[in-house]
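User: Good morning. I'm curious how flavin mononucleotide would be positioned relative to this chain. Could you predict the structure with it bound?
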Amino acid sequence: MTMLVQLIYTSSYEGSIGLEQARDIARKAGVANEQNGVTGLLMFGHGHFLQVLEGSTDAVNETYQRIAKDPRHRRLRLLSYREVGARDFAAWHMQHVDASSIGAVHLQRHGLVEHFEPSRLRASQALGLLRFAARSIEIKTASSTVNAA
Ligand SMILES: Cc1cc2nc3c(=O)[nH]c(=O)nc-3n(C[C@H](O)[C@H](O)[C@H](O)COP(=O)(O)O)c2cc1C
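Assistant: Good morning! Here's the predicted structure, ligand included:
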């Protein structure tokens, strides 16, 4: 069986970036990740990224090396790299999350004191926040499906 790994890192955008650009990065990443069997989330806010990548060792390593060379961001900080039994973010090849959509109370609960500054997080806090964001998306998606029905 192929070994499954999960990698979490943070970085800061070089220059100024809007929500649309961050969304566009995630959309393009999703297309490439689908081909490589990579899943994850890309959270963005206040010029900072928090991203989780999951997949085979080779796919995640290769993707992270490519991302690390990307001049659009800097100060990459690897928070966690570990073997996992199952994916936490299997539903998305790369889902964008707007950090400002996560309430301040929840950010604080996950270790962010004032605003979205993910490089301050410990690995366990970062994973907790990403899982929380994933659940929020799932709830929103489920309720919009119900409302549309
Ligand atoms: C914050 C951020 C996250 C990214 N996430 C991914 C990703 O998950 N998968 C991916 O293939 N590329 C991702 N990219 C894009 C890569 O860095 C790179 O631009 C793209 O893979 C094309 O690489 P190439 O020009 O070497 O072919 C990301 C870029 C940024 C700035």
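The radius of gyration is 15 Å. The helical segments are 19-36, 57-68, 104-109, 123-148.
Let me know if you'd like a different ligand tried.
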